C-alpha cells in the first residue's frame, strides 16, 4: 500500500460517503486478523497504517511483568528497561514484526475490506432512503414470483409483497407496474428488506391524496378509513370550510377522482361519507347507501341502534354483514340495525309514532327522556356476525 492507495480511498469517500479513517481502521483490523492467522496466532499484535504515506507495519505487544510466564505475551521489567528505561510494570512494549512477504496478503486483504465496506455503505444508503418513506406509496415493476411472494423491482433494490398483503383475486405477472404501500423497512445482513402491501388502508389514503389536491393541502380532512381489501371500503371526510363539499371533492367531476382509485384497486367499491361530530348523524351516514329512519346512541358504551325501513334492512346490513361491519370500523361504534317491523314487534309503543305522527316524530322520541325500555347489550350479539 502507498500514497496512491490513500488517494483511491479519498476518491471513494467523495463518491460513496465512506470516511477514509473508517476504511483504514477496518483494513487495520482485517490485516491483524490475517497476520494472526498466518504468522502469530498466539501473540498480541497491532497493525498501523501511516495516514500520510500508506505504509503499514505490524507490532508485537508484550506486557511488562515481574515474572515472565509466556515470553510471547510478557516481558520482564529488566529487559523492558534495556529497551527504554522509562518502562514500568503494566506498560506495553511494542516491537516491529512485519513479515517480509506480508505485502501480498495485505494488498489482497485491503481489497476485500474496501469492497465489503462499499457494499455495506450502498446498503445503508438504500436503507436510509426507504426507511424514511415508511407509510408512503411507491410504484415498481413485478420482477418475479417465488413461493407466492411477489418481488417488485425498485431500481437498486426490490420490495416483497407477501401473500397476506396481496389483494384477493388479484393476479401478478412479471412486467406489471404496481402501486404498493411501504409497511416496513428492515435491516438485514443481505441488505434492506422492504415489505409492501396492497391491502393496507394506508394505500387507499395515499391514493386519495394523490387524486384529491384538497386532501393533500389540508382543506379536507380524512377522519377515518375502514377497508376490506378487494371488496369494499368506507371513507369519512370532513371540511372546516362550509363552502367546500368534502364528499363531492373526493368523488370529483363525473366521479373521475374516485373512479381512478377504483381502477387502481381493481374494482374495489368505495363509499365516501361525510364525518359529523354528532355520533347519530355520523353513524347514519356510515351505513350509506342505506337510508336510515332514526338512530339512538349510548355514548358511554359507544353503542348505536339504527332503525331502517324494512326494504332497506338487507342493504344496511350488506352481503354477509359487510356494510354494517365496515360502518362499525369506520365510526368506532357498535351498531345494532333494526327494521321498523322488528321494532314494532319488540316494542308495541313504537307503533304510536308510526300511526299517530302528531304525537311526535320517532327520532325526537328516541332522543328524549322517555326512552324505550332497552339495553344495548340485549340484542347486539345478534348482529356481531353480520
Automatic annotation (TrEMBL):
Annotated ranges, domain S1 motif: 135-199
Subcellular location: Cytoplasm
Matches recorded under InterPro entries: KH_dom, KH_dom-like_a/b, KH_NusA_2nd, KH_sf_prok-type, NA-bd_OB-fold, NusA_N_sf, S1_domain, TF_NusA
GO molecular function, one term: RNA binding
Keywords of the record: Cytoplasm, RNA-binding, Transcription, Transcription antitermination, Transcription regulation, Transcription termination
Keyword Transcription regulation: yes
Tagged with keyword Transcription regulation: yes
GO-annotated biological processes: DNA-templated transcription termination; transcription antitermination
Subunit structure: Monomer. Binds directly to the core enzyme of the DNA-dependent RNA polymerase and to nascent RNA.
Family of the protein in this entry: Belongs to the NusA family.
Its job: Participates in both transcription termination and antitermination.
Protein name, as recorded: Transcription termination/antitermination protein NusA
Amino acid at each position: 500500500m502507498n500514497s496512491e492507495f490513500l488517494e483511491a480511498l479519498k476518491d471513494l469517500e467523495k463518491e460513496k460517503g465512506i470516511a477514509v479513517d473508517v476504511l483504514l481502521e477496518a483494513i487495520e483490523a482485517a490485516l491483524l486478523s490475517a497476520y494472526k492467522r498466518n504468522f502469530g496466532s498466539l501473540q498480541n499484535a497491532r497493525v498501523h497504517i501511516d495516514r500520510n504515506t500508506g505504509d503499514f507495519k505490524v507490532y508485537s505487544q508484550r506486557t511488562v511483568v515481574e515474572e515472565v510466564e509466556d515470553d510471547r505475551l510478557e516481558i520482564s521489567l529488566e529487559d523492558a528497561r534495556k529497551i527504554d528505561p522509562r518502562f514500568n510494570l503494566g506498560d506495553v512494549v511494542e516491537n516491529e514484526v512485519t513479515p517480509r512477504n506480508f505485502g501480498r496478503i495485505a494488498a489482497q486483504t485491503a481489497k476485500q475490506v474496501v469492497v465489503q465496506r462499499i457494499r455495506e455503505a450502498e446498503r445503508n444508503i438504500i436503507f436510509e432512503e426507504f426507511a424514511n418513506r415508511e407509510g408512503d406509496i411507491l410504484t415498481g415493476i413485478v420482477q418475479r414470483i417465488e413461493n407466492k411472494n411477489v418481488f417488485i423491482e425498485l431500481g437498486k433494490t426490490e420490495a416483497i409483497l407477501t401473500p397476506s398483503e396481496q389483494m384477493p383475486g388479484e393476479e401478478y405477472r412479471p412486467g406489471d407496474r404496481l402501486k404498493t404501500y411501504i409497511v416496513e423497512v428492515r435491516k438485514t445482513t443481505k441488505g434492506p428488506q422492504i415489505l409492501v402491501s396492497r391491502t393496507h388502508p394506508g394505500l387507499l389514503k395515499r391514493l386519495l391524496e394523490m387524486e384529491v389536491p384538497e386532501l393533500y393541502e389540508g382543506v379536507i380532512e380524512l377522519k377515518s378509513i375502514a377497508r376490506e381489501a378487494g371488496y369494499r371500503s368506507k371513507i369519512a371526510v370532513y371540511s372546516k370550510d362550509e363552502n367546500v363539499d368534502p364528499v363531492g371533492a373526493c368523488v370529483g367531476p363525473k366521479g373521475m377522482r374516485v373512479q381512478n382509485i377504483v381502477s387502481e384497486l381493481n374494482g374495489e367499491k368505495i363509499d365516501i361519507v361525510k364525518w359529523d361530530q354528532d355520533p347519530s348523524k355520523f353513524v347514519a351516514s356510515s351505513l350509506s347507501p342505506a337510508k336510515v329512519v332514526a338512530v339512538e346512541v349510548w355514548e358511554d358504551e359507544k353503542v348505536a341502534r339504527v332503525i331502517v325501513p324494512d326494504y332497506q334492512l338487507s342493504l344496511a346490513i350488506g352481503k354477509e354483514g359487510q356494510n354494517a361491519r365496515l360502518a362499525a370500523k369506520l365510526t368506532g361504534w357498535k351498531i345494532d340495525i333494526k327494521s321498523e317491523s322488528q321494532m314494532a314487534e319488540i316494542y308495541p309503543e313504537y307503533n304510536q309514532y308510526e300511526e299517530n305522527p302528531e304525537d311526535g316524530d320517532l327520532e325526537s322520541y328516541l332522543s328524549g327522556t322517555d326512552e324505550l325500555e332497552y339495553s344495548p347489550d340485549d340484542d347486539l350479539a345478534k348482529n356481531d356476525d353480520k
